[in-house]
Fold this sequence. Notes:
In chain A, β10 and β11 (185-187) form a beta hairpin. Chain A folds into three domains: 9-206, Aldehyde Ferredoxin Oxidoreductase,  A, domain 1 (4-Layer Sandwich); 241-431, Aldehyde Ferredoxin Oxidoreductase Protein, subunit A, domain 2, CATH 1.10.569.10; 437-608, Aldehyde Ferredoxin Oxidoreductase Protein, subunit A, domain 3 (Orthogonal Bundle), CATH 1.10.599.10. In chain A, α20 (482-499) crosses α22 (528-548). By secondary structure, chain A is α+β, with helices and mostly antiparallel strands. In chain A, the strands form five sheets. A six-stranded mixed beta sheet of chain A has the order 2-1-6-3-4-5, with helices on both faces. In chain A, strands 8-7-12-9-10-11 form a six-stranded mixed beta sheet. By secondary structure, chain B is of the alpha+beta class. Chain B has two domains: 10-223, 3-Layer(aba) Sandwich (L-fuculose-1-phosphate Aldolase); 245-440, L-fuculose-1-phosphate Aldolase. Chain B has helices at 10-25, 76-80, 85-92, 106-111, 130-136, 152-164, 182-204, 209-218, 220-223, 245-260, 309-319, 332-337, 357-362, 375-385, 403-425, 430-433, and strands spanning 35-41, 47-52, 66-69, 99-103, 142-143, 167-170, 174-179, 270-274, 278-282, 296-299, 325-329, 351-352, 366-369, 387-390, 394-399. Chain B has an eight-stranded mixed beta sheet with strand order 10-9-8-11-15-14-13-12, with helices on both faces. A seven-stranded mixed beta sheet of chain B has the order 3-2-1-4-7-6-5, with helices on both faces. In chain B, β1 and β2 form a beta hairpin. In chain B, α3 (85-92) runs parallel beside α6 (152-164) and α10 (245-260) packs parallel to α15 (403-425). The longest helix of chain B is centred in the middle third of the chain and has 23 residues, at 182-204. Chain B is globular and about 70 Å long. The chains are: A alpha+beta, B alpha+beta. Chains A and B meet through α7, α20, α21, α22 and α25 of A and α10, α14 and α15 of B.
Amino acid sequence: MGISGYQGKILEINLSTGAIKVEPLDPQDAILYLGGRGLGTKLLYDRIDPSTDPLGEGNVIVIATSPLVGSKAPTSARGHMVYKSPLTGYIGTSNSGGAWAHTLKATGYDALIIRGQAAEPVFIDLSPEKVEILSATNLWGKTTHETTDILTAESSPGNFYRALAIGPAGENLVRYAAVANDKNRVYGRCGPGAVFGSKKLKAIRVRGQEKITIADEAGYRSGLDQALYLMKQAPITKRLMRELGTAGLLLLINLISMLPHRNFLDVEHDENKLEKVSGEYLARNYLEKAGSCYLCPIGCQRHTRVKIPDGSEKKGEGPEYETIVMTGPVCDIYDPEAIIRANYLANELGLDTISFGGTVACAMELFEKGYLTPDKTSGLEVKFGSSGLLEKLVELTAYRQGLGDLLAEGSYRLAQACSHPEVAMQVKKLEIPGYDPRASYAQALGYMTSPTGACHLRGGYAVSLAFFGGTREIPRFSLLQSPIAIRNMQNTGILQDSLGICRFTGFAFSVEPWARIASGITGQDFSTIRLEEIANRIAALERLFNLEAGLNPEEEDLLPARFSEIAIMAEGQPRLITRDNMLQMRRDYYKSRGWNEEGRLSQPLLGQMKIEKKMEPES
Amino acid sequence: MSKKKWQIREEIFRLFHSIGRASLLCDLQDSHSGNMAMRWRNESGEELIVITSTGSQKGDLEPNHLCYLSPNETDFGYYKASSETDIHVGILSLPGVKASMHAHCKEVVMATLDDQPSPKSLPPFMPIDPLAFYHLGAEIPVDWFAVPSGSPEMAKTIPARLAEHPVTIIYGHGAMSRGRSLKEAFFYLSLVNNAGYIVRLLERQKINLNELRPKIKAKPESCFHFKPAPYNLEIDGRCDFPEEEEILKEFRKAGNRIFESRLSPFHTGSISVRGVDYLLYAPQASMPYEVGGPLLKLPLTASEDEDDRELELHRKIYAESNFQTIMHCYVPEAEAHAHYIYSGENQPISRIIPVDAEGGFMYLSIPVVGPEVKDEQLIRLLHDYKLVVIRGGGIWAVGSLSVSEVLHHPSSLREICLYRLAAIERGLDLRKMEPEKAKKW
């Protein structure tokens, strides 16, 4: 008898051999790593040589669900994908909502593991009755939307197919290619689409209605009722996200001098221009309706429409805050329609808009400084503010044409190729998202220490507390308080990703109701104290993976020099993060995690955390 | 007769002004009541008594409301000084005493009102809370005076009382205290008033004090969580992390809020923020802005001879958790309500369930444990609930990020308890008002 809440089975598919293996879920893995990101990381670590080529046959993709997926817990339809990132060379982890992961669990598996590489394009067709690897030759070259439409065409009421697919960007191994599920929900960061592409895996279609069992209905219900009750009260979960989407943050983030401009050269914006890309403006002019992921009462999805050059209208989703900021103000672009169209296209072609925007901004600075010469840009004038180029650059990148071939490598490799690596605003080769780290030390440290590189979600979403923290607002410029604060925020994120729930629930409450729900569903002790241990363990395992993959903490757990050299004005003072500031916070952060001064983990710590590798052979 | 001393001494004035303002803010005084005095050696080595003038507004003292007197002779300034100067002079002549204070302390006055005919022979006041019990003693004298203000009888009796007790109660009038500093004298008055408030809250809940008091007197260690550390003068004014402006601001804001919102009596309770290998610690957390309190940077691990149980618990909680902030307060409403017994039951409550909207959003249920609670159990409960009430031990709260986060717990708890206490006073059935789902939380 397995643990309630889990299906108790793992499906492993080897695309090189065509072997399909069903294994029982090791209950110890479930208890120690919970699900989603934690379980995914453990399953990956047991099956991969961390030094493997991320675009080679040895890379492994794990898509894991949590024990909450399949329950009625709010926002609990999320899946987590773990792999070695072709952009960073370290652990890649991406999370997505929609309904796909819920259906994956309903096929009867807790996690899906994909190894090897197919010789020809394939897609996986998965249901409780069968697992098949089918040819995707007819799908290769198609967009994520076209692929999804084809694969889900046979859906009928009560018998829904859901599809997860890459677009041309993934096929062309763009290092920050995304994987889309349900068309516009995206496993975005770190380039999972390129890993799919390298495996010639175009899509995964799922269908199923397998239920989960619940061990303690009353305990589960008590947590569930409380979670829903609190979400109806908090302004962000009950209203803001539905009315303005994440774009509603834009003007607020600008107010706290944290909205980056021109590849993070400053945070100064023309407010009249900025208004045009605000959530309020977009809601008034482009929003058709809000939408929700499965089981989500928040409703942050933006169903929008925009005019296209031929005069007709196109419908799509988004843009979200990150897309607006990274393809907008970071590139000195304030044209909402150019941003919306580029966003639609990026979703269809399968690109992460954060890394895309960051790479384009890097290219613009390189171009303006004369480091990126017209011979490399196919004659394009890649200047800041070139809104007319955005869509073109999305297309060139996804198909690796002309300048797009350079852009497809990400900002770090682009800047290296131009002999000016200092222009790439990245950490561990992952582009910094739309929050300037000089305006929050905790956010800065989060970028530095995130296992995936500069990610606001894996690094600890400190900025959310800078504005919406309420009682949890921490000092923005405290060297002393930031290390533990960011560790705790990272841990909260790890738990959300491992519970299969949305970050935005954190605006309404912290972990306590989830502990009740998880314990109620599984009948296991997933109390807050146990969850804290689990989060610490997952953070350690991700770090261990990175170290084994060759991470050099001394050089790579740092922000680019720009943030110690060019000050921004915040709260009436010039703000920098000096190298000494970074080193002090980093040292304290390592210590708070129990790592040594070099940021490495000792054997006793691994033993204490019950971390061990059990190498699972390939089938 | 020595020269008249009307000159302004800035530092002395600021001290009197801040304590006067604080005593008014926590409702120990009316607009003009009370008086404060201290011994002081001036620049030329002359020993003086500084005392507030009669009729001055203690919440808004002006420099000329301080009188500088000779302790041995009477001069003109003596007549401007408090009508109770004789009493203060007597108190200040006690060995080791440097300050004295009188305030109306309405709560303890109300708690000791008596309808016996005059002259009254009154029993001592017996506190039931750990702060008053350990700092002021198991029995605090209550004296009835025919002329209960500035009388020679008081000048004789009160210093004698204060030779034995840090504070004494004047029937129908207030209390007087002595201290090694003015802050300490105010500390004692704050505690005695708080003790009176708690007793009155117990009476409102119809809790049998005649059963409770003998138990406490016989075996205090089984009724209280731990003995608080003595009032520490040596750390007065110390600030170990002046460069951390933002954190200092957070400490001061929280400390002031604890004091002004009466979440813990003056200079009681504690706040900490954990660093990586140290903790930033306010051991006298209830600190009005103008008075402040010590702010220490201490190692995260204790030396073996650590004898401050409160500090030890902060360290222990951090050692076994990821929390970043901790607060310990003696919220009087929670202290009193923790003794409440539902009708038909024979044990005090084990949880406080909010019956108000804000409380209900913050907590479905707040655990109440007895003073015998083990550290491990307390830490476990803090993980699950973030806020725990210890009967006879104040409240402990934790935060994962900020001082503001942890402050919200005692502040919210106070309101939760006030609403529940009001329901009891109005004869409502609390159990009908408590959400069913909370009873299993």
